[in-house]
Amino acid sequence: MAVLSGRALHYVLKIGDRAKNAFFFRQILGMKVLRHEEFKEGCEAECNGPYDNRWSKTMVGYGPESSHFVIELTYNYGVTSYEMGNDFGGVTIHSTEILPRAAQHSYPIEKTDGGHLLTSPDGYKFHVIDQAATEADADPVQSVELRVTNLAASRQYWEQVLRMQPLAENKQSVWLTYDVKQASLELTQTPDPINRAKAYGRIAFAVPAATQQPLHEAVVAAGGTVLKSPITLETPGKPAVTVLILADPDGHEICFVDEEGFSQLSQEEPDGDQRLEKYLAKDPFQSK
Question: Is the full-model pTM beyond 0.90?
Fold first, then answer.
């Protein structure tokens, strides 16, 4: 089966304290705010989880989402913490700058067999390889790890149904992508049942709008789980996008958004950082 024309976009993390996370992602990991959006009510596609309340979305990364894999920080007003599960393995980053910054700010660093581990204020793992990306313009974000209970079944789903291309593998993991120049998806076998708890996230990819419905039909034909059939979402003052929300065999949520709409929606905001600071300053739920 031909590889789908897709592009890795971002992974969604629910956060409980925007101020602490703003410090971690900007001052420790060295990411910048690409855009910040506020919403008065819950998302029809549960982009902020099963919450019908005011929430915000802050996109952070090392470059524009058109060329970099970024992190979406989802904040639900009044929700200060989320129960962590074992579904998310972490993000791997190649950088020679993160560890010195962490040391400068006395941020905890844990040594691991393959590098160093930093944990975000909410408990999300970031695996730091102390070396520069292989190419000068390469994205420092190398991969995103999801844990699975049956590697063979998960691989079949992501390869045969979602049409991703395998990059590498070992007995425990497989790495897949839609483009070798993008951050890859790492699926890692775990002996434990997957518990997504309350902090579960969502990985997003962009695909041509014309492929969303055929992809939807392929998932249905394969007996896969469709959480949301193609639906159009509105963002105030920005282009609308169509999304298809799926779940893999272990319940990991996957969003396929139309490339045409999303490429306009995701334009970097020059004042994104200032917009975040504005709402941090007047948020009664945040640490000061």
Answer: yes
